[in-house]
Known about the structure:
Elements: E1 2-10, H1 17-32, E2 36-45, H2 55-58, E3 59-65, E4 68-73, H3 96-113, H4 120-128, E5 159-161, E6 166-171, E7 180-184, E8 189-193, E9 199-202, H5 210-221, E10 227-230, H6 241-254, E11 264-266, E12 270-273
Parallel strand pairs: 1-2, 8-10, 9-12
Antiparallel strand pairs: 1-3, 3-4, 5-6, 6-7, 7-8, 11-12
Helix pairs in contact: 5-6
Amino acid sequence: MKAVIYARYSSDNQREESIDGQLRECMEYAKFNGIDVVNSYIDRALSARRISFRRSNNSRLYACNRGQGAVRESAANACQEQESPFAPQSRGRLPAHHKTFLRSLRCDNDWLTDSFPIPLAMVKSFLTKEPCDFPQDFSIENYSVCRREPTKFLHDGQKIDLGGRTLLVVHTPGHSPGHCCFFEPERGYLFSGDLIYKGKLDAFYPTTDPMQFMHSIKKVKKLPVKKILPGHHSLDVPVDLIEKIDLAFKQLYAQNKLHHGSGIFDFEEFSLHI
């Protein structure tokens, strides 16, 4: 998708510098969502009355897809999140990538507190599809998806102090809206969850997003990873698997197959179900 950025400021209550902030946040949003920004337009509007504008009202990302114009609000459009229980414990305006992350957290929060998006019968079938050593008191008939009210939310870029070890939260949507990896900079360990492992990588559920999955792979590819610790299957995961998965996504994207219903694509050490 290609897009142009439209940034506006009112001379009554904003400075020229606010334009730079709008452009910066829109560029971050576009980069995160795989949008190719081809140009930007700055509107220096003169307001006849003093209005307390927020940048969230002034910045828009105009996306053009197949000749039709569609307006997508930039990450700057999120309202002040500091009063939200989803917000990180910090002061000041949230960065754009945090706001995008908060929207994803709300999706996962709804799953935990209200309704899980996948039917229970399907979840049970997945649990019993392959041999597994369940606890002796486990009963598939009595199984139900956990329902809990979250007490705290992590945010992208947050550092978690484990006492002598620090983990970095890396928001990697695609498998689910709020999916996260955790990176330990000191050792180069990547706890990759459902993003990277040997086996079938799923991005075919309605709750998944193949495009976001691809961009999340690109995101962790930039990290100095020395060891991958996945959430599934074998722990013997070579670091170059990130590069191989990235290449696979590139190929499918070039073939216009990066959308739901495309099928299962087998590669040497993994497969992609889209």
